[in-house]
Amino acid sequence: MSELKSCPFCGGAAKFRRRRNGPYLENFVQCRDCNARTGVVIVPVLSGDARVDEAEREAIREWQRRAQV
Description:
This protein is an alpha+beta fold and 69 residues long. 23% of the residues lie in helices and 29% in strands.
């Protein structure tokens, strides 16, 4: 996993999170300080490693994206 950019709102450190919610895995990135986070990328628990890895990459891509000014 690449290093996560700091929070665009408070500058705090971010962490990738994965949690189980019934038959699904919820993947997202969250700021450790202000709790800002990406949307949740959901995959079934039994979807296989490739889909779980892609869900992680998608959540990280969403966090890393910044608006061009």
